[in-house]
Protein 1
Amino acid sequence: MKYRSTRGGVSGLTFSQAVMMGLASDGGLLVPESIPDVSARLADWQGLSYPELASQVMSPFVGDIDQTVFKNLVLTSYKNFQHPDVAPLVNVGGVQILELFHGPTLAFKDIALQFLGELFSHILTEQDKVLNILGATSGDTGSAAIAGVRGKPGIRIFIMFPDGRTSPIQERQMTTVLDDNVFNLSIDGSFDDCQNLLKTVFNDLSFKETYALGAVNSVNWARVLAQVVYYFWTWFQLKQPAEFDVAVPTGNFGNIFAGFIAKRMGLPLRKLVLATNENDILARFFQSGVYERGEVRFSNSPAMDIQVASNFERYLFYQLGENAIDCAAFMNRFQTEQCAELAQPEGFFDWFTADAVTDAETLKSIQGIWREFNYLADPHTAVGFHLAQKHRDPNVPMVCLATAHPAKFDDTVETAIPGVTNHHPSLDALLGLQTRKTAIKDDPEVLKDFIRARC
Ligand SMILES: *Cc1c(COP(=O)(O)O)cnc(C)c1O
């Protein structure tokens, strides 16, 4: 399989090159040249374990890695998950909750970042190269990325987070990792300041090249690909129904875009319920065809406090008939005017039902799931569950993706259900451990000096 950019300036990349490039060098996102139809192979995949299925679903997109090597790499990626099914399906009041939070950092990002860590390691060893990952996080991505590459030879990771603005649990998940290749940088500023620092340093192309800087954010194709798997897994867990719907808590459009790819591959998935919090740019788009930036609001489902969804461009590319010129024009218009509109939404537009959930509804949802079904949901999952119930068709199975363990967001869960017991042993085990972080000024030169001194 070869890869090309949604904006037309890059083509003919191998899978490995696409993984190493991350964001396409023309500013677009990398997509496969075609999406294979696997519907004829589904019968053969029945009864596979999660890692075996993952290897089968992803293989057609790879090509330049030996099949046996790739399979082993995938099996290794899911060894650190704490549930034998990797992602168990649980019936909660008739909605099937797919728990994606049994990885090392208890959020669904582990599904992709454990795999990406193994993949980077393999590609770098083959090519005898090193990689210095630079990332900015407001919470979940940083710890999952660190867990994916800690201790791996040839890789260093530098993660910036806004000092005092991630939750204490999220900070501990990062700073208790003491491996020599992990550097936690607390920045005296906001998450936006961290992202601006990241952009400034990545835009210094000679620095980027000299220090072999790489990214782990959700624009990396490998992250989307690893997420496609659990849509197939769900269908097998449901015993292969004629069709099913999935509600997806959405921020950067990464989690739900993987469902779009699964459907294009021939999985009998009917509808994707796109669930956002009050940051509703995507919900508004799917209701009107207008993509318009709003102000970021801080909500009680913070991993979805995003106005511009980085993976949206991939969907747009397909919606526009894979026309890179139209796609680039739409994104450029959005860039300059903060607003762009689809001329004639059609086709793939109908695959989505989009809706937004308020903070108050999220709290009520957490309460309701607990009182009625005795199930503890984190706020992101509760956003999805609220809409799973609202948009459920009694004749079609409805699945809700659970994206984090409730103990990761204990403050909000406590607000919704005062006094409830909400722990996870691997989070409790972090209390009192030694931590390491370096405070850094919000200044790109200081950041570059820090990186230079460690590489
Ligand atoms: C990242 C994240 C999401 C949103 O996923 P996207 O791929 O950005 O749509 C939802 N819930 C949790 C807990 C997350 O960490």
Protein 2
Amino acid sequence: MSPRRPAPWTLLLLSFATFSAASDLRSELTLPGVSSFFPGDPGYANATRAFNLRFTLEPVAVLYPETVHELANIVKIGKANHLRVSARSGGHSYVANGLGGENGSLVIDMAKFTNITVNPSTRTAVIETGNRLGDIALALNDYGLALPHGTCPYVGVGGHASYGGYGFTSRMWGLTLDNILSINLVLANGNITKASKDINPDLFWALRGAGPSFGIATSIEFSVFPSPASVIVFQYNWHLDVEKAATALDTFQKFVVQPSLPPEFGAEIVLTRGAIAGNVSFGLTGAWHGDPSLLNSTVAPFLAAMPPLNAVTFTGGNWIDSVNFLAGSTLNTSSAPDYTDTFYAKSLMTPEASPMNEAARTAFMNGLAYEGFTSNTSWFFQVELYGGANSKINSVPTDATAFVHRSSMFTIQFYASSFNNAPPYPDAGFKFLDDLVGGITSNSPKGWDYGAYTNYMEDKLVDYKQRYYGSHYPRLLALKRKLDPTGVFDFPVGIDD
Ligand SMILES: Cc1cc2nc3c(=O)[nH]c(=O)nc-3n(C[C@H](O)[C@H](O)[C@H](O)COP(=O)(O)OP(=O)(O)OC[C@H]3O[C@@H](n4cnc5c(N)ncnc54)[C@H](O)[C@@H]3O)c2cc1C
Ligand SMILES: *[C@@H]1O[C@H](CO)[C@@H](O)[C@H](O)[C@H]1NC(C)=O
Ligand SMILES: *[C@@H]1O[C@H](CO)[C@@H](O)[C@H](O)[C@H]1NC(C)=O
Ligand SMILES: *[C@@H]1O[C@H](CO)[C@@H](O)[C@H](O)[C@H]1NC(C)=O
Ligand SMILES: *[C@@H]1O[C@H](CO)[C@@H](O)[C@H](O)[C@H]1NC(C)=O
Ligand SMILES: *[C@@H]1O[C@H](CO)[C@@H](O)[C@H](O)[C@H]1NC(C)=O
Ligand SMILES: *[C@@H]1O[C@H](CO)[C@@H](O)[C@H](O)[C@H]1NC(C)=O
Ligand SMILES: *[C@@H]1O[C@H](CO)[C@@H](O)[C@H](O)[C@H]1NC(C)=O
Ligand SMILES: *[C@@H]1O[C@H](CO)[C@@H](O)[C@H](O)[C@H]1NC(C)=O
């Protein structure tokens, strides 16, 4: 149906309409039972504070619906007013995408959606998307069950499960999104629907890797696992110069592809500032979920090929002890407030078929040992093991989910905060990380097929379509045009034209 031509007298009213648009919107969005914050309200600044204080955004409103119908109604109002609508779950997006990633979005905070319903006999759990990872781990642990996910207890399941969800159990159990059975969601037109392998299968595919561009998930049904009986968190550390650190990274690359490496071995290389210019602190940190007596023999081939250790610690316990230890804080997020940071982060997913060569590794370690030593930032880099032998992540067929990276060896996270974790962010911090990633890619073979991780989203990634979504972008775009033609769920690095 074509829109009706406006009667001439309505044009006279147009300037008045624009003038009063803000108050109209406010009254349209003032819904019984839904708390809200509008610009100028006390509490608006708190409600719009990003986790990354590098971003200050001004949404048109932040609303806290309590029911799916209220949420759907808000989406319809947003669409009718040509607003971009954004869900916020844990608010931990690196680029404030829970606030829409740019000014003027309508934010739907999921905080009231905190139900968790566990069915121990089917080993499934329906988790509403206002929940944080720490609270989810506690709730599942009451049943002796667990889900693979990241370590920070305050991260929300809404963003985490949309884009990946990596933890030290992921080589054994896959990413968080690999364990989704179905998703209840609201579409851009306000329809309330469900997606699973049988219901809206195309949408189900898209939601697991690019969810925020397609809908607002209200609850997610997961298959969950019996918790491992014992977990040992291990931390080995070396102080190495550039050449030795570059070699050590290769030693790790060779170690992880040995066919016998068990899936119960989850690990990352942690790189931090060295004690002197020209050195780096090189750590192997991870969690062992198998028979405790087999950890040493599993790591032995790696240690044998490395220089002598500077330090090692083992922290053993049961499953929830390990989750708690890795969190470094309380898992119950209502018992203590969250923190904020001011930072820039990047990621690089290395292809297993073409591990980092010597020139790339040397450029990487050189950057850390010199530019990193004098950098006006506090930084850490994590070389997370996604692949290697027997990895569940890479056993999933590439086309099974929109998450495209099923043949990466590592996801390297580059993370640099301002020194006092507060604004302003120093310009040199951008240059430091851009130089590092540039040093790795420019020293790699032409056409090196690297990716970037959507959960470590960055605002300055120019080739984001290729790096985040790869060969899946065209299929995602076709579906986006069908389900959200007016871009209700658009944001700066999402799926759009
Ligand atoms: C301290 C810290 C530690 C981290 N550790 C890990 C880790 O160990 N492993 C790992 O994989 N990642 C990790 N991350 C990254 C984290 O997974 C992402 O930042 C994640 O997207 C955050 O989700 P959120 O719900 O908290 O964020 P939000 O900012 O609320 O949301 C992120 C994006 O998802 C969208 N979204 C949120 N809820 C919904 C919903 N219900 N439906 C549809 N879209 C939604 C938002 O609109 C936004 O685009 C970490 C992040 C931080 C800050
Ligand atoms: C600020 O917002 C947080 C949630 O993001 C909330 O828990 C807290 O109570 C708010 N503080 C105030 C003073 O309103
Ligand atoms: C959003 O608006 C605020 C306040 O006007 C401004 O400081 C900020 O730079 C804007 N952000 C973007 C991404 O435009
Ligand atoms: C959450 O669970 C409670 C109790 O089971 C129920 O009353 C409520 O409707 C649920 N909330 C939602 C949003 O489903
Ligand atoms: C967290 O603690 C609060 C009380 O402070 C309690 O009501 C809640 O059930 C706890 N949550 C979990 C997941 O254990
Ligand atoms: C929205 O829901 C209605 C009624 O359930 C259905 O007829 C329609 O096809 C749905 N539209 C979309 C885009 O899913
Ligand atoms: C620097 O690295 C060298 C070579 O790996 C090592 O022998 C030395 O102990 C390191 N020095 C410091 C202070 O870390
Ligand atoms: C494992 O090796 C460490 C040294 O890396 C040693 O301290 C520990 O006793 C060993 N544990 C077992 C069970 O052999
Ligand atoms: C380092 O950055 C902080 C802000 O994060 C700034 O206050 C300080 O002056 C900077 N120092 C140098 C030496 O650049």
